[in-house]
Amino acid sequence: MDRTEAELIAAVLAGDSASFEPLVVKYSPRVFATARRYARRESEIEDIVQEVWLKAFHKLKSFRGEAPFEHWLMRMAVRTCYDFLRGHQRNRESSFSEISEPEDDWLDRFVADPGSAPENADAAKLLIDRVLEKLSPPARLVIQLLEIEDRSVKEIAKITGWSVPLVKVRAFRARGEMRKILARMTKEKYL
Amino acid sequence: MKLVELQKKLVAAARLSAPDDRVPYAFEKRIMAQIAARAVAERWVFWTQGLWRAAGACVVVAVVFGAVSLFAPATPDNTNDLSQDFENTLLASVDQSDVALP
Fold first, then answer.
1. Window 74-113 of A, Cβ < 8 Å to B
2. Number of domains within chain B
């Protein structure tokens, strides 16, 4: 018979670490999806997910069971991704000269007629990845959670541990930072 | 160029592309092995730290007693010598039996 999450967690806390495995199996897809939003290389993604699970195991005592385990775990995953972003800021200062041909074409189409550039094009996805990589870690986290994942300011405050006013300030700054990067990108391309 | 519109378009593109949730083969086994390995390592760390602390405490006690015995003022007469009193008490019965012999 399958044991419930609460039973598995209680067993782990009682010293049966093998009971942690079903939790890893169940939630790893979600943790991997989250990590892939912040890191590109598969080795980095695996490192992030591994760190999330090790942290979850060692901090399981602090899980009080008031909220679902998934929420607690995803909060930990986002915070680990944020720590990863802070530690890997190498791509931020690079130029946009390495833009590929499809990305170039997509931008040309957008300049000619904004409506004609499709949002579901692979080139648009590559471009937004490039822009996100150049954002500062707090700006990237806020843009990801607020604009892309469509979460509320309150939710972001809960996930990140920041206060609601701080999330609002960082969101305002992040949008400005993103516009500056887009301006730099278009300037490099068209001037 | 309309930067706000470009920003909206790119954010919409990011929303449309859901990230891949594929998990590498036997990833959970790797995590469980890491947890087991860390538990063993932590046990060693616990004992090593404890023993080092105990060794440190022993050294401190030895140094304190050494300093006390080295710098304590010497007693001027032997009448109050505790070791002499102790020896006399311990060997009192032997001394008495020596006297009792013809």
1. 110-111
2. 2
